[in-house]
Amino acid sequence: MRRIFIALFALLVASTSVFAQTTEEILARMDKEVDRFDAEGFFMYMEIKLPIIGAAGTDVYILGDKYKFVTEVKDSKAIHWSDGTTNWEYDAAKNEVTISNAKKTEETQAESNKKMMQGVTDGYDVKLKKEDSEAWYFECRKSKSNTKKDDPKKMDLTVSKATYLPIELKSSLKGVTVTMARVRVGVTEEEVTFNPAAYPTAKIIDNR
Question: Which of 71, 64, 74, 65 is nearest to 89 (CA)?
Fold first, then answer.
């Protein structure tokens, strides 16, 4: 019996070493999952904390060049939609929808939004701080070779073991703390498309 237990223990140890992953492998798998954003879209929650002003939270829905941002600051709520050509902005306090032309940029909205999560550790030295059954917890410190002034000196990244997607990415720069969380792949057309029927009593202001 003792030999059986020893054999099982040895097998368990061997299996654990086979499935162990390096930091580089985990981050590469995370980037691979982020690549799915192009075809399937993605959702995430973003919170910005400012000194004195406080926190502002935004639900972000993105599918290609279409997106919807739902922002809440204290008692105020605003919803912003865009399809790359037209913008719609709903002010809940005023019950108004303002329509305007989208500004043309050198890169598409999809390209810009994808950068929020892809290659987030580029220019950083990444160290695995700990792990549990649910996630890996990384500390990202700005590399000496990274000369970008807008990059924070330190970020904390939590990656899901189930999906390899970021559970949370937290950073601070010049007193402003930014947290990205609850990332998931998959957004529907309905989630990113303005539907006037949902706001039948709203005043429409067309600035196109």
Answer: 71
Length of the chain: 208
Could you write out the DSSP letters of every residue in 80-110? EEE-SSEEEEEETTTTEEEEEEPPP-SS-HH
Least confident residue range of 18-22, 73-77, 94-98, 188-192: 18-22
Topology of domain 22-206 in CATH is: outer membrane lipoprotein receptor (LolB), chain A (2.50.20)
CB 45 within 8 A of CB 58: yes
Quickly list DSSP for 112-128: HHHTTTTTTTTTEEEEE
Note whether 45 and 55 are within 8 A (CB): no
Q: Where are the domains of the chain?
A: 22-206
Neighbours of 30 (CB within 10 A): 24
DSSP H or E stretch at residue 59: strand 54-63
Q: Is the pLDDT score of 110 beyond 80?
A: no
What average pLDDT does this structure show over 74-81? 89
Rounded CA-CA distance 74/87 in Å is: 24
Helix (H), strand (E) at residue 33? helix 23-34
Residue 16's Cβ-side half-sphere holds a number of Cα atoms within 13 Å equal to: 6
The 10s digit of each residue's pLDDT in 181-190 is 999 999 999 9
